[in-house]
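Technical annex B. To support the medicinal chemistry partners, we prepared a structural model of the target in complex with S-adenosyl-L-homocysteine, based solely on the information shown next.
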Amino acid sequence: MRKVTPEDLIEKNNAINSVLHINSKRKEKPKAFVETYGCAQNENDSEMIKGMLEKMGYEFCNSYKDADFVLYNTCAVRENAELRVFGNLGALKGEKRERPDLMIAVCGCMMQQAHIRDEIKKKYKHVDIVFGTHALYKFPQLLEKALEGEKVVDAPDEETAICEDMTYVREGFPVAKIPIMYGCNNFCTYCIVPYVRGRERSRNHENILEEVRQVASEGYKEIMLLGTNVNSYGGDNGEMTFPKLLKEVAKVEGIERIRFMTSHPKDLSDELIDVIATEKKVCNQLHLPVQSGSDRILKLMNRKYTAEKYMEIVEKLRNKIPDISLTTDIIAGFPGETNEDFEETLKLLEKVRYDTIFSFIYSKRKGTPAAEMEDCLTEEEKHKNFDKMIELQNKISREINESYVGKTVEVLVEGESKTNPDILSGRCEQNKIVNFRGEKSLVGKIIKVKITEAKTWSLFGERTE
Ligand code: SAH
Ligand code: SF4
């Protein structure tokens, strides 16, 4: 793994100054449009890139039409997201012809794949900068070169150590996303993440706590700790364990809630369950991806647990934390999956009764072991199973939400509802969206709301104080 050297930081700062200088001769306040695909880690990377753009004098806008610099931060987990990026890049061709000064950049997980970079080079010649996931802090150098007229591609396979000399333009107040580790060592057979994000690298706990203290001083109330597999935090570099880190984060004054994502069931320790149960600030909520309820498929997926083992964990969690809400990820149509296998998944959903599930139809990823496995079901059968699963889960989600009617919950207010500015939206401890009438000044506060109505994906209530 390549270390970040003091020379790297000097180069970064020099490049920031150069970009400021180049832009000052062109336009007083250049505008940047950043669009992010995929997971919370990608959103966090974009917040970091926006932090660098801000230092380089950019303001932000909401459309490529107003922008001098456009960036797509891409996701490679499923084909759909990749196709959308290619669609967007295609739409920029004409724009670049009309405005040759427009800078177009693509970064993120898609760009760590050689076949994608080749396609961009061949078919999307109007793209100026391509960069991967491993050394984001080098972005100012890349932008400097591109502004000088060079085409820039930077997506080495070798991971780089984490650069701590970063600022963020955060989105999502009063919730701050804070990464604790990068990469993944698990190699689930369907998944591209280990290939595009590299091996696990944990941040030093002091740096994490410093960042938590910083956002607390800015008024943030909730911390979302991010990692592909947070349970193995510290496993690579002898840092403290994840449960210990949670306890340290909980000591930071001003922070009222702590959540984390994602946990792999194979590494969920009793110690972690105890910390969720006993540490008041750690929310009674867990995202625990199961992927399938069939042992045969779990084995083919290389998930390293059985459905029975998973159920034991769920029982342990519910015994110690009766009001915990559970969510999961499911893949329908994994190669070799039969209708009988899928019935096992449906049975598991009925047994666990998740609050919500995130469900996906299997998407073949080039270079992963599952891409070489044979399919049993037709696309039509896969979609039928998928729809059956959604129908079952919607019924369960609704029933669980209905059990909240009449209860009073504590809501951290996040902002106006997306569909109605008179309505505020926030989340209760169980991470359910709660909407209610109230003034905007409540954003960032924790208030009590009595639930009056349940929907499939949200709750509606009235403020009680
Ligand atoms: N690190 C997390 C999330 C990884 S990606 C974890 O291990 O759970 C998020 C979700 O995308 C996965 O949980 C999985 O359900 C889904 N996913 C990953 N690869 C996929 C593929 N090739 N096709 C369909 N869904 C996929
Ligand atoms: Fe992908 Fe599995 Fe790693 Fe999650 S744990 S990122 S699903 S390989």
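Notes passed to the chemistry partners:
The mean pLDDT is 96.
The chain has 13 helices and 19 strands.
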